[in-house]
Amino acid sequence: MKILGLLLRNFGKFQNQKLRFESGINIIFGENESGKSTIHTFIKGMLFGIGRGRGRASVYDTYSIYEPWENPGYYSGILRFESGGKTFRIDRNFDKQNKKAELVCEDDGENLSIENGDLELLLGGMDLSGYDNTISVGQLKTRPDQSLAAALKEYATSCCASGNGDLRPEQAIQRLEEQKKTIDKEIREALYERQRQRETVEQEASFVWREIHRLEEEEEQIRERIRQAERTRREQGEHKRLVDEIRPAKWRIHPLEIVIFLIAIVAAIFLFQRPLNYFVVIVVFLACTVYVWNRMKVGKDKNQVSPEEIMEEILPEEERASVEKLGWELERTVREQKDKQIQYENLQEQLAEMDVVGEKDQVLEKKRQAIQMAIDKMNELSEELKLRLEKQLNEEAARIVCQITNQAYQRIRVEDNLHMFLVKEGKRIAMEQVSQGTAEQIWFALRMAAAGILQEEEMPVILDDAFGNYDDERLKSTLGWLDEHKKQVFIFTCQKREMKLLDEMGISYHLTEI
Fold it and tell me: For residue 225, what are the contacts with CB-CB under 8 A and spacing of at least 6?
């Protein structure tokens, strides 16, 4: 990218101020309060806009500081730049009431969209933080802040081995972690469902087990009742004998008496003559009849105990239970017990099957292990790329430091959170041990090295009174490095030292006096 010119329509102290720039080194020279920092801020505002603070913060924010001294409603300007062989124009109005931003390609008149990222694309993906911490050095702001460390870390996890940024391990790891969380959730849900089913089966098995024990006790009780009934049956013989002994005679008239009656009747027929014998026979028959009648009547009147009553007195009620009915009950109990035993065994088999990991669970676990393996590999790759970036950053920063310090320091180490130290003659030297000028040169080298790594397209370097603590020799080395390695440089200065050294070195530059 190359900045071609500026038009400060109404910005700070400037009105309709036009500035033109060239490739190489551009010197913007002016006395104190001539507006050098205003122009520097204008370039930044045209590229990234100027935000407005809120509340008390708005009193001293950038918008308020550089608000036009006259006609604040026309707070606007134009920046023309070249990128990719084409010329573009940014036209911004910073006024809060009429705020607008336009991006136009002057070659073909195409209107581009800043809101949709067209300008960011032309800037090679550089954002405001990257601008402030790499190519733009403000007054007394040589040291970059921690956002540069964050940008380097993000780049280390977003670039692939070829360095084109197509592979982003951090995003890939994030997506893999989300997939892993989803699978972990499925595994937990499956485990919860399996546990719930197991508890249900265990409860059912416990109930069946209690039923089996109840049936076993019931079977034992029935068998005991059967044994009692069998004992009762064996004792019935003895009971019958006892009943027979106490049972009254079946005959109320003895058969011998009847025989005697018959003999008497026959004797009367043959002992007496006719017709007397008929009379005697009738009398004997009537006498026998009366005797039999009286005997029958007396037998009925006697209070005799029946055999059934005797059996009721001898046999208790529970001993007269039906053995056949008890057998049916026993058969039913045994059959039900067997069914419950089979059911219990089936439930135990279900519990055993639940202890075995199912096919679905195995698939989920394999997926989880595969994702975890991928995460581990991506972390290894990310760490490898991080180490590779650190090496690249250290080597590039060391080359710059070596040149601008005239080989006073040939090695530099940049660690996490931009903690840096120098290596000289095998000794480790902390940043706190070097002079302010040397520290600023090291920070400058870090900025330039980071810019070369982070930015896809080379951007102009903007330095606002950045060399106040440089001695002449190291300033000459720095100017020589800028002329050799940068296509466009802006040096805002209130001194003529830079121009004098450039003249001595025979380096051409474009001067703008304000």
Answer: 321, 326
